[in-house]
Write a structure and sequence with these properties.
The protein has 13 helices and 24 strands. The protein is of the alpha+beta class. The chain has 2 domains: 250 residues, BirA Bifunctional Protein, domain 2, CATH 3.30.930; 98 residues, 3-Layer(aba) Sandwich (Rossmann fold), CATH 3.40.50.800.
């Protein structure tokens, strides 16, 4: 059964080294978290699952890694500088600040219940920077609030260096920063977070077809690659569309406290390339954009067959990597009653997502031959290049099994006295707890089969 509360995951994350409170020894910082030894691995595996599906399994999408700091003009013409804000209210009684659109009752303070609430005001979500010796404290750059805009301004760079016919996409995974009023839900809403976004450039005549295509493709990825049951996911169409959107839908997961967004799929029309292109008046733009007199490049596409030069539409898929990790941990979390007052906590992760792919355990730690053979098996498994392999040399087999159940290790390999006699080891499977003896030289092949499941 999945976790009943996010608190179950919070406790596991701290205990087993997945996620720690940022700056914890100094009292922490709201909306900032540090990823520990196993959190780093799980995040990396989720990223790899996304990147493999978007880039390596296709011919029509290229990768990009753009700068975190970018010219202020980029965010002016994208619309972020003028309109990327949340409605902020303040309680006159207790001083609490809240997002009005997220309050339980917009007329009452969530903290103390007072009805003495200020009128809402726009609260800028971007984090401004003053860079350079002559800046004198004035904001002349921003930490990016998303990865999408840095993709749009690189549209021509990618197309010129790696030519594609429409449709084609550009994908990025990376950090983004938002000055959130009220971070919440553990790593669900943070000030520093990670996004996996793909911008798919299409002929305007094909936009609706590809919008539906990417809705189905992304939903299938959540079930096939992350192991989220289809009944725990749903589409929620946007009733009120953003100014740039022709259509938009959220993929939501059933968190313990209700459905909430983990990914968005958007038809952004020609707003983005149209906002940043030079010579806007040469193109018949569908979206309303700011007049741009600063861009130096036409972000258009020339169709070789028709001879037409136009601004492509964009179908965007935008996933929160931190949210994906949280959903995966919640869904894979299980507390099993083993009888006789015993129980175990286990993360039943897809093997390719598991932070540790296998643990090798010498049954006794004071027999050099057993320890040496264990190290030899570890080296062989590490040479497979499939991820983290751990040697557990504490000597307590039961505690080792329980620890690796909690971090989601799919198999443990135990080396014992019998190994020295007949060259076999015990393979113990996480989900079933079943065990079998196999030849030492068969362990690598067995593990490769498991991590592909």
């Amino acid at each position: 059964m999945p976790a009943k509360s996010v608190n179950d995951i919070v406790a596991l994350c701290k205990r087993r080294g997945f996620i720690f409170t940022g700056s914890e020894i100094y009292g922490g910082l709201g909306g900032a978290y540090d990823y520990g030894p196993y959190g780093v691995e799980l995040m990396r595996n989720i990223r790899n699952a996304w990147w493999n599906s978007m880039i390596y399994a296709r011919n029509d999408i290229e990768g990009l890694d753009a700068a975190l700091i970018s010219n202020r003009l980029m965010w002016k013409y994208s619309g972020h500088e003028g309109s990327f804000s949340d409605p902020l209210v303040e309680c006159k009684k207790c001083g609490a600040r809240m997002r009005q659109d997220k309050m339980k009752d917009p007329t009452k303070c969530d903290n103390c219940g007072s009805t003495e609430i200020t009128e809402p005001r726009a609260y800028q979500l971007m984090m401004g920077l003053s860079i350079g010796a002559m800046a004198d404290g004035a904001i002349n750059a921003y930490l990016r609030p998303e990865t999408a805009t840095t993709t749009y301004v690189n549209f021509k760079n990618v197309l010129d260096s790696k030519p594609h016919k429409l449709p084609f996409g550009i994908a990025q995974i990376g950090k983004a920063f938002r000055n959130e009023i009220s971070p919440r839900g553990f790593v669900f809403r943070m000030r520093e977070f990670e996004q996996a976004e793909m911008q798919y450039f299409v002929n305007p005549a094909d936009d609706e077809k590809y919008f539906e295509y990417w809705k189905k493709t992304r939903l299938a990825w959540w079930t096939d690659k992350l192991g989220i049951p289809a009944e725990k996911l749903r589409f929620l169409p946007h009733v009120k569309l953003a100014h740039y959107a022709k259509a938009a839908v959220d993929i939501e997961y059933a968190f313990p406290d209700g459905f909430d967004e983990v990914e968005g799929v958007h038809n952004r029309q020609d707003f983005d390339l149209g906002s940043h292109t030079k010579a806007q008046n040469e193109f018949k733009l569908s979206a309303k954009v700011l007049e741009n007199k600063d861009s130096t490049t036409k972000l258009s596409y020339s169709d070789a067959q028709s001879g037409e030069n136009f601004i492509p539409y964009v179908i965007e898929t935008a996933m929160g990597v931190n949210r994906a990790m949280l959903a995966v941990m919640i869904e894979s979390y299980d507390e099993e009653d083993l009888g006789d007052g015993k129980s175990r906590t286990v993360l039943k992760l897809k093997p390719w997502l598991s932070p540790v792919k296998a643990a090798v355990i010498p049954l006794v730690r004071n027999v050099p031959e057993i320890v040496d053979l264990s190290n030899k098996i570890v080296d062989e498994l590490r040479n497979l290049g499939i991820g983290k392999i751990e040697l557990e040399n504490s000597g307590n087999i039961g505690k080792n099994y329980r620890r690796h159940d909690e971090i989601g290790t799919p198999v443990c390999v135990t080396v014992d006295h019998q190994t020295l006699e007949d060259g076999t080891v015990t393979i113990r499977y996480r989900d079933s707890m079943e065990q079998e003896r196999i030849k030492t030289n068969e362990v690598a092949k067995k593990l490769l089969e498991i991590v592909k499941q």
